[in-house]
Write a structure and sequence with these properties.
This protein has one domain. Helices cover 59% and strands 21% of the residues. The protein has seven helices and eight strands, in the order βαββββαβββααααα. It has an eight-stranded mixed beta sheet with strand order 2-3-4-5-1-6-8-7, sandwiched between helices. Helix 3 runs antiparallel to helix 4 and helix 3 packs parallel to helix 6.
């Protein structure tokens, strides 16, 4: 039985810089990921979106590697999100179960594919968590709007909130490729079947759809908040103009009164 554990450790990892510093054991790499063979059936998979995945690594070796990669991370998390998965080898047929897969043979490309899907799953957990936090903040603003009939948010706060939402949407858009099947599955039917089975096991497409729908709801609310703020500002400007006109008229009246007096 092989054990897979994947951690979301940071917002992002500088894959290129880490590869330049640690070349020994590299089996596969591109601009977005690094795959190391550390020993017999022992692997480490690194992704630019802040995830590191270990297969058949003991706790001490895992901790050592995480410390090694920390300087190459942006915004390291104190609390890491993680996902675990079991791989049973030498099975009669490939079979999927809850948090487990049985495979006929531990081919390196099969193991890499399993690690990829576990890593995609933990990345989705992170993005879903961030989306839920934004939704909670949105709900607080809409609740105050319902209860008080007005927004308590300043223009600066709204701009910061819009920036936070756009940053999350951009980060998800940048990493959309993580939910695509790797090129290897296009040419190998067995790999393709395993990939599709893993995506169903982890509900990757459904969870991604939930994130996208959540961000759309947040976007609609932001548009409403923006319109309300613009209306509030325009109303404020109108009152300033009315006040200035009134003061001007009042000054004229005072001048006439004193002139005739």
């Amino acid at each position: 039985m092989l054990h897979v554990i994947s951690y979301q450790i940071a917002d992002s990892i500088d894959v290129k810089a880490f590869r330049a510093a640690y070349r020994e054991g590299i089996y596969h790499y591109d601009a977005d990921e690094l795959f190391y063979k550390m020993g017999e059936e022992t692997f480490v998979y690194i992704f630019k979106y802040g995830v590191v995945c270990f297969l058949n690594c003991d706790e001490a070796r895992t901790d050592e590697f995480l410390k090694k990669i920390a300087p190459y991370c942006r915004n390291v998390f104190e609390l890491k999100l993680s996902e675990e998965f079991e791989v049973e080898t030498n099975a009669r047929e490939n079979k999927f179960g809850y948090n487990k897969i049985e495979i006929v043979k531990p081919d390196i490309e099969v193991l890499r594919l399993i690690m990829l899907n576990v890593s995609q799953s933990v990345a989705l957990d992170y993005f879903l968590e961030q989306t839920n936090l934004l939704q909670e903040e949105t709900n607080n603003h809409t609740l105050r709007l319902e209860q008080k009939g007005r927004m308590d948010m300043s223009g600066r706060d709204l701009k910061m909130y819009i920036g936070k939402t756009l940053n999350l949407k951009n980060r998800i858009a940048e990493n959309l490729y993580i939910f695509d099947s790797p090129p290897e599955t296009w040419e190998d039917e067995d790999l393709n079947r395993i990939d599709l089975g893993l995506k169903r096991t982890f509900d990757l497409q459904e969870r991604f759809r939930d994130i996208r729908e959540g961000l759309e709801i947040i976007k609609e609310n932001l548009e409403l908040f923006k319109d309300l703020l613009q209306y509030r500002n325009s109303t404020f400007l109108e009152w300033i103009i009315i006040t200035l006109v009134f003061m001007e008229v009042l000054n004229l009246l005072i001048e006439k009164i004193f002139k005739h007096g």
